[in-house]
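Progress report, Aim 2. The chain analyzed during this reporting quarter is listed below.
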Amino acid sequence: MRLPLKAIAMYLLSPTATFGVLVRIFQDGRLHNLLGFDPTGNIEPDMPIMLFGLTFGLSVDYEVFLVSRMREQYDQLGDSTQAAATGRLRSIGRLVASAALLMYVPLAAIGMSDVLTIKLFGVGMVFVVLVDVLVVCTLLGAAVTRLLGRAASWAPAPLARFYDRFGIKETDVPSDDTADKPVPVTVG
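Predicted C-alpha cells for the chain:
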C-alpha cells in the first residue's frame, strides 16, 4: 500500500513543475520570441486537465515497470537497497529513459506548431516527460525506495498469505534446492 501512495505523491511533482513552467512561458510570455508565439496572458483551461490525465497514465506505466523489476530483484536478493539500485537504475531505468527520449522527437515537433494550444501541449508534454522520467521516476524514486527499506516491499497480511498459499512470486526462480538438479526424462 505504501508504494502506490509514494508513486502518486511523487507523480504530483512532475505536473506541478510543468504547470509552473507553462505559466512562465505561455501566460507570462517568457521565451515567446524563441518559441514563436504572441502571449495572450492566459492558458487554455482544458490544457492542464488534458496534460494531467495523459502524463498520469505515462507515469503510472513507468512506475509499474520499475516497481515490478525492483520486486523481482528483492525476491532474488532479499535486500531493498540492492533491489532499488539494480531494478530501478541499472536495468529498467535505461529502458524507460530511452523510451522517453524516443517520445521527445514527436512531442518537440508538436511543440513547434503554429497553433498556440498545440504548441502549449507539445512543450508541456516534453517538459513533464523530462522531469518525470529523469528526475522524479528515476532519481527520486530510487532514493525514496531506499529510504523506505523493507517497507517498500511490504504487502498487507491478507495479500501476503494469498501469495504464500498459492506460491505467487515476481520471479520464476525456484525457492528450493531442486533448481540445480536435472529433471528425469521418461520416454514411453
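Residues 2-173 form one domain. The mean pLDDT is 79. These observations will guide the mutagenesis work planned for the next reporting period.
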